[in-house]
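Q: Structure tokens for this one, please.
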Amino acid sequence: MQDPLEDPPGVVTDIAPNDFMHQATTPDAYFRGGSSALRAIRLALLAARAPAPRRILDLPSGYGRVTRFLRAQWPDAEIVACDLIEEGARFCAERFGAIPITSTVDPDHLDIPGSFDVIWVGSLVTHLPASGWDGWLRCFERVSHPGTLLLFSVAGRFIEHMMESGSLYSLRPEDAAKVVEQARATGFGYADYADQPGYGISLSRADWVVRELLARNLWRLDSYAERALNDHQDIVTATRL
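A: Here is the predicted structure, written as tokens:
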């Protein structure tokens, strides 16, 4: 059996010229992010005693930081790469054999056919206010079936600590302070990026996230792993009931 801590062979390392995630970090950190996402998915499948996934949704896919690892691990799976950046989803199709779908700002208007065995959601709700979570959870419920594994990343205690220590995460200083203050008071904090209403940085403590997810009565919480995504964001794993 393959060690779930080891990367599969044959990961394609081609980088799109406009891959902003690659430009924003080091190459090692970029590939470590994809590797850690795959590790979390494989461990979730092992824990669930689930077979290899036949259909996988990567949303938002970007230019394939995670998609490339999914394709190397499951060469025969149908992988849907969905992103607001059409060029990113198209790159995933050209390089990694994914099916490209251009996302929408409003998840209620997003049409993704069929259902998936695994849904990977990296760095999506980390940029949304609390009011934006409901629509995306509804979207994932539409494209899941009993037994579907949903994994999504959240900005938890470590990022809260980083912001307390002076990391602004592209926010204005006063907004970063507000986010931390809100998270301390309610378990959730959010502020827009400058000139980007409805899109910014959110902090969500584990108890807030778990309550939000389980209140829907459609998911079983499997795990909450702190700093599991690239030693930075937390990863929540749940199974559709």
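A few notes: Residues 58 and 120 are 5 Å apart (CA to CA). The chain has a mean pLDDT of 97.
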